[in-house]
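Supplementary Note 3. Input sequence used for the single-chain structure prediction.
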Amino acid sequence: MNTKIVIASLLCGTVALGACKPKAPDILPPDPVETSEPDTGNYQQPQGAVLGSQEHFVNAVNGQNVIYFDTDRYNIDSADAAALQTQAQYLQRYSNISITIEGHCDERGTREYNLALGERRANAAKNYLTSLGVDASRIRTVSYGKEYPIATASNEAAWAQNRRAVSVVIN
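The predicted structure, written as discrete structure tokens, is reproduced below.
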């Protein structure tokens, strides 16, 4: 007996929902108008990156917005110095642009140790840029420690890629 009641209830519900069907609008939108020129999909994009964007910065410094460190180190070596000099020239040319330097570490070590080391790496890059004449107020630093690895393998090649400081344009 209960199944008859359930079936009857379902049928009544289905009929009731069918009665709620929305009616078609009285006025339909106009048909599409054909243009004289076919759409070829060839849209012109602006040439080059937009000034003040990360892409513009990376292009202008020839991809040298990242510097790398040895294990447990935060000193600026000659390769790092060359990259930072290129960054300083860019920042001196575009005095309205500011950056954040992100300090990163490999997966080894405690979270606290890596956050402190990442901060030292970011500050070493900032101090070098300020020694080249970039106003310190235009440079923020942040340490991510081991939280954002570029390479996820657990080997020396991956660790070497993760021990870095990255300069990022602030918009």
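Confidence is low (pLDDT under 50) at residues 39-46. DSSP finds five helices and four strands in the chain.
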